[in-house]
Structures are given as structure tokens and as C-alpha cells.
């Protein structure tokens, strides 16, 4: 089958279209005939291996010279071609969409937990644009606990994730303000934003307005600037991966690390609504025995200090930093409550 591969990190010049063997589904997996696949910021990060610190942080995805999975692509829509052993609920011919690895190819092997049924009314192309971007947007709003009447600021409102975030927040009954550049103001307004701030003209952190929920999908502002625009009791959700050309080595990781250090554990019983658990490179690495499960990752939302405190605490939920000025909880990459 044909697939888009890369052997080393780099720009799109390192990609090549080549023939490789068609993969076979293992237990719990299906083979999908790919009809459409979309490109996300994540594909760009993985292709370039940037920010570079990510290569050290996720060894299941990032190898030393190139991505562990040589075939690019994550989001897909297509038709089930083969059902692997132990898979129930799916049949050959089912039309599906989802997010996994190696989807810029004619076929991809996907764990059945990573599949969703494609609605008939949706084209394969539209379906393939949904999983990562819309899933991230929905997760950010959920972590921000966006509800009717909330004033929500979406930074990066014109992007892949932001366009979904604006629409989904508006559907939840929130009053949305979007941040984008001049040429995208009409687009963001058409998606349901009541107000749009042009970041090339105005600094949205210095307008004097604060918001119940701030969703940052860019990651190029200082934490202290972002906290200033979160209303008392409000939430800040950090999910930006940084802009191309800015921060090749650390990128937005510094911002996220500060956000993580300040947060408290998330609300209990928060299942991933998109069934992402068990998908992607980490799933394959564990399945193939390439990576041992890191017990520290069982509680990825806790800092090292938080994990120590949780281990030392009596059974039950702990809220390590409740006594401080902020009530924090994790988001797509981190969320925090505003100070009073
Ligand atoms: N944590 C997660 O799970 C997750 C998942 C997916 C994506 N992400 C991250 O989220 C980010 C957004 O992803 P995406 O797919 O939406 O990317 P995208 O389609 O490339 O959108 C980028 C957005 O950033 C805005 N932007 C660019 N420079 C800006 C600046 N200086 N100030 C304010 N806004 C600026 C753009 O606005 P204009 O075009 O109007 O300039 C656009 O809205 C990426 O960094 C990605 O890595 C995180």
C-alpha cells in the first residue's frame, strides 16, 4: 500500500510517498481503509520533533533521529476492512472516524477504542477533520467547566481547534470573545463569537476585561498576563503548542509547567469522552513491549510534589493546594482557577 513516510525530523521535505506492506490488525484492533485524513498542528510538531524538549518527554512517540512511527498522520475517516480478534461491536464495512497513528496511508490499523461511527450525513472529508481539533476543543471547554452565561475568551479562535471551541462554547450558551488576526475576524464572528479582538492591533491581556474561562490555544503569552484576565473563581485552560518559529527547544512547555505547578487535581470520575485512552504510539509501545509503563504516569496531572503528598495522604481525594489563593485543576494541558 502507499503511505507518507519520514525517516528523520525536518520540514515537509523529509516526507516521501512510498510502498509499504499492508498492516494486519492484532487483538482488539481493526484495519481501516482510509478515505480521508486531516493534518493538525500535532502532525507538524511530530514531523519536526519540536519543541525539542518533547523528544525527551515522550519516548514512545519521539525517537532520537525521527518519530518512532515513520508513517505520518493521525486523524482519519474510512471503512473497516478487517476486524481483528476480540473486537466486538464493529463489522466489516462500518464507516468510522477516529484518531490514531499512521493514517496518511491507504490502510491503518486502529485499536477499536479509537473508533467512532461516522454519521451518514457527514462526508469522509468533514469527518476526518473532527477528531483531534474538535475533541481538543470539547475537552478544553469541559476542563474549563464552560456553562451557559459564562464569558469565555478563546485565544487562537480562528485555528483548527479554536474554530470548534468558539462554536461549541456558543452552543453551551456561553458569551464568546475570540482572539485572531484582522483577516479572520469575519470568520470568527460567523462562528458565534459576540466579540472579536484583533491581536495585531490590541493586547487582549490589557483591555481591563476579565473572563470566567480563558482558553489559550496559542501558548505564546506569559502566565501572569493570562491570569490577569481570569475573573475571580474563573478558569484558565492552557492547550497551546506554540507558534512555528517560536521556541524550537522548549516552546510553550515553560508556560505549561508553571500552570501545572499551580494546579490541583481534576474533578474525580472524568472519563475521556473521546475514548482516546489506549490509542496512538503509547498504546502500540505498550502492546509491543517497547516501553514499560511508568508508574509516575498513572497520575500525570499531579506534580512530583503532588504525587508525594497523595501517596502520604489517607485514602480518598486530596486537594493539596486548597489553602492557597488559587483553586486549580488540570485541563487539556492544564487549567487553573482565577484568584480573587
Ligand atoms: N493539547 C492538546 O491536546 C492539543 C491538541 C491539538 C492542538 N494543540 C495545540 O493547540 C494549538 C492550536 O492548534 P490548531 O490546530 O488550532 O492550530 P492552527 O490551526 O495553526 O491555529 C493557530 C491559531 O493561533 C493563532 N495565532 C497565531 N499567532 C498568534 C499570536 N501571535 N497571537 C494570538 N494568536 C495567534 C492563529 O490566529 P490567526 O491565524 O488569526 O493569526 C490561529 O487561530 C497548537 O499550538 C497545537 O499544538 C494542543
The stretches of 5 or more residues where confidence is low (pLDDT under 50) are 269-277, 291-333
**Class of the largest domain in CATH?**
Alpha Beta
Kindly report the average pLDDT value. 83
Strand order of the largest sheet: 10-9-8-11-12-14-13
Which hetero ligands occur in this complex? NADP nicotinamide-adenine-dinucleotide phosphate
Shape: globular
Q: What proportion strand?
A: 15-25%
State the separation between the terminal residues, measured CA to CA.
58 Å
Q: How many H/I helical runs? A: 10
How many domains?
2
The name CATH uses for the topology of the largest domain is Rossmann fold
Biggest beta-sheet profile: 7 strands, mixed
What are the salient characteristics of this protein?
binds NADP nicotinamide-adenine-dinucleotide phosphate, 14 strands, 340 residues, 10 helices, 7-stranded mixed β-sheet, Rossmann fold, alpha/beta, 2 domains, Quinone Oxidoreductase, Chain A, domain 1
Amino acid at each position: 500500500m502507499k503511505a507518507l513516510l519520514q525517516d528523520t525530523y525536518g520540514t515537509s521535505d523529509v516526507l516521501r510517498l512510498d510502498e509499504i506492506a499492508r498492516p494486519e490488525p492484532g487483538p482488539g484492533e481493526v484495519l481501516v481503509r482510509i478515505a480521508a485524513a486531516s493534518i493538525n498542528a500535532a502532525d507538524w510538531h511530530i514531523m519536526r520533533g519540536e519543541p525539542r524538549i518533547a523528544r525527551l518527554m515522550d519516548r514512545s512517540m519521539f525517537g532520537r533521529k525521527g518519530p518512532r512511527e515513520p508513517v505520518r498522520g493521525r486523524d482519519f475517516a474510512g471503512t473497516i476492512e478487517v476486524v481483528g480478534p476480540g473486537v466486538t461491536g464493529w463489522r466489516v464495512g462500518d464507516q468510522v472516524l477516529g484518531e490514531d497513528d499512521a493514517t496518511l496511508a491507504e490502510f491503518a490499523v486502529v485499536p477499536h477504542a479509537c473508533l467512532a461511527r461516522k454519521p451518514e450525513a457527514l462526508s469522509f472529508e468533514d469527518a476526518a477533520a473532527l477528531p483531534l481539533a474538535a475533541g481538543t476543543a470539547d475537552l478544553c471547554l469541559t476542563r474549563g467547566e464552560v456553562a451557559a452565561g459564562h464569558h469565555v475568551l478563546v485565544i487562537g479562535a480562528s485555528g483548527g481547534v479554536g474554530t470548534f471551541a468558539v462554536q461549541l462554547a456558543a452552543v453551551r450558551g456561553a458569551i464568546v470573545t475570540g482572539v485572531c488576526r484582522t483577516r479572520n475576524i469575519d470568520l470568527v464572528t460567523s462562528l458565534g463569537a459576540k466579540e472579536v479582538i484583533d491581536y495585531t492591533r490590541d493586547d487582549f491581556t490589557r483591555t481591563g476585561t476579565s473572563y470566567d474561562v480563558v482558553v489559550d490555544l496559542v501558548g505564546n503569552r506569559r502566565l501572569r498576563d493570562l491570569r490577569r484576565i481570569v475573573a475571580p473563581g474563573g478558569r484558565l485552560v492552557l492547550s497551546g503548542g506554540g507558534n512555528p518559529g517560536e521556541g524550537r527547544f522548549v516552546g510553550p512547555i515553560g508556560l505549561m509547567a508553571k500552570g501545572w505547578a499551580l494546579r490541583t487535581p481534576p474533578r474525580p470520575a472524568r472519563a475521556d469522552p473521546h475514548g482516546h485512552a489506549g490509542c496512538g504510539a503509547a498504546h502500540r509501545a505498550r502492546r509491543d513491549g517497547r516501553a514499560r509503563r511508568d508508574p509516575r504516569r498513572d497520575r500525570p496531572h499531579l506534580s512530583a510534589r503532588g504525587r508525594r503528598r497523595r501517596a502520604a495522604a489517607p485514602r480518598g481525594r486530596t486537594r493539596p493546594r486548597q489553602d492557597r489563593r488559587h483553586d486549580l485543576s488540570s485541563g487539556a494541558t492544564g487549567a487553573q482557577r482565577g484568584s480573587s
